Amino acid sequence: NAGVMQNPRHLVRRRGQEARLRCSPMKGHSHVYWYRQLPEEGLKFMVYLQKENIIDESGMPKERFSAEFPKEGPSILRIQQVVRGDSAAYFCASSPSPQETQYFGPGTRLLVL
Amino acid sequence: AQKVTQAQTEISVVEKEDVTLDCVYETRDTTYYLFWYKQPPSGELVFLIRRNSFDEQNEISGRYSWNFQKSTSSFNFTITASQVVDSAVYFCALSEQWGNEKLTFGTGTRLTIIP
C-alpha cells in the first residue's frame, strides 16, 4: 500500500509566480490535511479537506492561498503571487476518517527567490 | 485553545544512553488524542504513536516507551539504549475530538546521538 505521495518534492519559484503543490492520499483515505513548516519551526495546520469539500480552513492565510480536493485526482494547494515568506516545507497528511491517525507525505520544499 | 509545549529545544546524548523527551499539553476537551512523530534528517514525518485520553497505560515498543500522565498533562517519550539512527527532530502533537481534527504540534526537540 503506497503511502501519501506529494509532488514535486522541491519547487523553486520567483516572487510573483504561482506554486501548485499536489498530494495523493493513501489508498482508502478520503481526508486530507495540509500543514506548513517554516524553517526551524513546528508544523502549523492550514486546511482540512474531504472529497470536494473544505471542512476547516482556519489555518489558511486569507489571501493568495487556496486548496481543493476534487472528486478525481490529487488534492492541490495553490499559492498565488508567492513571496519570500512563503518559503517553507508543505506537508500533506491523510486519514481514512476523522480522528484516525494522520499519515504524512514526504513534503514539498518551496523556495521563493 | 489547545497547546503543546516541548520545552527541550535540543538534546545531545552519547550512544547507548537513555533519553527522555518531554511533552506538556493544554486542552479543554475531556476526549483528545496525543501523538509523537519523528522527523529524521531526510525530512519526512514518521508516525510513532497515537494515544487517546482514556488510555493512561504506558506503552513500550522495542526501545521506545511512552508515559502518559493526565494529572500533569504530560506525554513523555523515552528512548532506551539510544542509537545514532535515533538522531532526528521529534514532535509531540494533540488533536481534540469532534470538529477539531487538526493536529496541534509542539515546536519539536532536536535529538542528537553522539557515536
What would a concise description of this structure say?
Chain A is mainly beta.
Keywords:
heterodimer; A: 113 residues; mainly beta; 7-stranded mixed sheet; 11 strands; B: 115 residues; 4-stranded antiparallel sheet
Secondary-structure map with pairings?
The complex is a heterodimer of chains A (113) and B (115).
Chain A (H helix, E strand, L loop, with lengths): L4 E3 L2 E4 L5 E6 L6 E7 L5 E8 L2 E4 L8 E4 L6 E5 L8 E8 L7 E2 L3 E5 L1
Chain B lengths: L2 E3 L4 E5 L4 E3 L2 E3 L5 E8 L6 E7 L6 E3 L2 E6 L4 E6 L8 E9 L7 E2 L3 E6 L1
Parallel strand pairs in B: 2-12
Antiparallel strand pairs in B: 1-4, 3-9, 5-6, 5-10, 7-8, 8-9, 10-11, 10-12
Describe this structure in words.
The complex is a heterodimer of chains A (about 110) and B (about 120). Chain A is built from no helices and eleven strands. Chain A has about 110 residues and is mainly β. The mean pLDDT of chain A is about 95. With about 120 residues, chain B is mainly β. In chain B, about 0% of the residues lie in helices and about 55% in strands. Chain B is built from no helices and twelve strands. Chain B has strands spanning about 5, 10-15, 20, 25, 30-40, 45-50, 60, 65-70, 75-80, 90-95, 105, 110-115. In chain B, the strands form three sheets. In chain B, strands 2, 5, 6, 10, 11 and 12 form a six-stranded mixed β-sheet that branches. In chain B, strands 3-9-8-7 form a four-stranded antiparallel β-sheet, with no helix packed on it. Chain B has a two-stranded antiparallel ribbon with strand order 1-4. The radius of gyration of chain B is 14 Å and the shape is globular. The mean pLDDT of chain B is about 90. The interface between A and B is medium-sized, with 27 and 23 residues.
- Report the span from N to C terminus of chain B: 41 Å
Biggest interface between chains: A-B, 27 and 23 residues
Number of strands of chain A: 11
Largest sheet of chain A: 7 strands, mixed
Oligomeric composition of the shown chains: heterodimer
The percentage helix of chain A is: under 10%
Helix percent of chain B reads under 10%
What distance lies between the first and last C-alpha atoms of chain A, to the nearest angstrom? 37 Å
SSE pattern of chain A: EEEEEEEEEEE
Low-confidence stretches of chain B: none
Q: What percentage of the residues of chain B does DSSP assign to strands (E)?
A: over 45%
Global geometry of chain A: globular
Task: Please work out how many helical segments of chain A DSSP would assign.
Answer: 0
Cα radius of gyration of chain A in angstroms:
13 Å
H/E element string of chain B? EEEEEEEEEEEE
Q: What is the overall silhouette of chain B? A: globular
Query: Radius of gyration of chain B from the CA trace?
Result: 14 Å
Low-confidence stretches of chain A: none
Helices and strands of chain B: which structural class? mainly beta
Largest sheet of chain B: 6 strands, mixed
